[in-house]
Amino acid sequence: MPDVKHFDPEAVLEQVERLFWQRGAASTGIAEVVAVTGISRSSLYATFGGKQELYVKALRRYVERRSQPVFQALADDGRGLRAIEGFFDRLIEARCAGEHARWGCMISNAHAGAEGGDPEVRGVLDRHQERLRAAMRTALGAAHDLRPGLDLDAAAEMLALLAYGVNLRSRAGADPADLRRGVSAALNSLKEPK
């Protein structure tokens, strides 16, 4: 007779995602996961595998549910630099105010933490970087006010790195006004001189 789960694995994975996002994988023990989810260790292991497998599943969920829709919206926007400005405005607002303030980004946190050395985690991080850079490149391609001769691929890479920097600095308590000034300077460097 098959084992019947007495919990919703997707709801548990959402709780675990939030826990790892806020605290990081290295500083979150399996006992905390058990306490937050109310699920026994044996049920967690039987459903998700060990802590590392659980972390990777949570990281992938974060990308699919949180990052990818934002990247798609940026790529589909069509307003060029205005779309990128809006992306950064929303990013700074989300990272500095509201429910997830000062949590940073689960992806940026993984880049900065020891978990980023795991090959499976590294694969998730690399794909995230590629998608972010591609969305920035698409948005830049729609811009009509860029300086002549701008290398769009290099500019997209710079903007992706800037997004990671905003995420890390916001987690450390950076002033949103300082983050906005830095973003404005970076975007102004891409514009055609008037």
Describe this structure as you would to a colleague.
This protein is mainly α. The chain has a single domain, classed as Orthogonal Bundle (Tetracycline Repressor, domain 2), CATH 1.10.357. The chain contains nine helices and no strands. Helix 5 runs parallel beside helix 8, helix 6 crosses helix 8 and helix 7 packs across helix 8. The N and C termini lie far apart (74 Å). The mean pLDDT is 94.
Entry keywords:
194 residues; Tetracycline Repressor, domain 2; 9 helices; 0% strand
Instruction: Give the CA-based shape.
Output: elongated
Q: What integer is the average pLDDT?
A: 94
Approximate strand percentage: under 5%
Strand segment tally:
0
Q: How many helical stretches? A: 9
Going by CATH, what is the homologous superfamily?
Tetracycline Repressor, domain 2
Tell me the CATH topology. Answer: Tetracycline Repressor, domain 2
Please indicate the count of domains. 1
State the end-to-end distance: 74 Å
Tell me which CATH architecture applies here.
Answer: Orthogonal Bundle
Query: Low-confidence spans: pLDDT under 50, at least 5 residues?
Result: none
Structural class: mainly alpha
Largest sheet: none
Output the CATH class name: Mainly Alpha
Radius of gyration: 19 Å
